[in-house]
Amino acid sequence: MIEENKQGLLTMSSGEGSQPYNYAVGVYGSRFIQELRDHHRILGIKCPKCKKVYVPPRQVCGPCYTEMTELVPVASEGKIVSFTILRFQFLDPETGEKKPVPYGYGFFKLDGADNNFQHFIEVPEDESRLWIGARVKAVFSDQKYNSLKTIRHFTLVD
Ligand SMILES: [Zn+2]
User: Fold this and answer.
1) For residue range 30-65, what is the model confidence (pLDDT) as tens digits?
2) Structure pTM?
């Protein structure tokens, strides 16, 4: 159903139908999620040729096409590479609920990794404290999830 809201924007809803689905996250994706869920530890994978560490782990190094098998822990802390603050509510695909705004989303270079990891970032009351290069750390959920939800969000390190 398509409706027009008070601002004149069209919104579309898919109704109440469920859309169940499953997909395999692979060998390394499984280890990554399990380590996160059981030990609050973030795993990367190291390329034997160029020595780059990727998080989350994947099977092949993009720049040198080398198969990777060595899982290595990386820090749950790092620095902000890029971020945005979202102020427009939309449905969270994880929960089906509207996510409270404002909230942040960013790319982080975790200590020990060579690529960027993306996740939510907590927006401080003073938004000017968020800046590229600021140190952040993962805040873990008290609940165990078989997904990235084990990390609630990243927050600034004082
Ligand atoms: Zn490589």
Assistant:
1) 999 999 999 999 999 999 999 999 999 999 999 999
2) 0.83
Residues 71 and 45 sit within 8 Å (Cβ to Cβ): yes
Residue 90 DSSP SS3: coil
Number of domains in the chain: 1
- Residue 9 within any structural domain of the chain: no
Residue 10 lies in a domain: no
Number of CB atoms found within 10 A of residue 120's CB: 19
Strand partners of residue 118: 107
Q: CB within 5 A of ion ligand 1: which residues?
A: 47, 49-50, 61, 64, 66
Distance 94 CA to ligand 1 centre (A): 33
Q: Domain range spanning residue 77?
A: 24-156
**Residue pLDDT, tens place only, 69-127:** 999 999 999 999 999 999 988 887 777 788 889 999 999 999 999 999 999 999 999 99
Distance 58 CA to ligand 1 centre (A): 11
Give me ligand 1 centre to Cα 107, in Å. Answer: 21
Calculate how far, in angstroms, residue 3's C-alpha sits from the geometric centre of ligand 1: 49
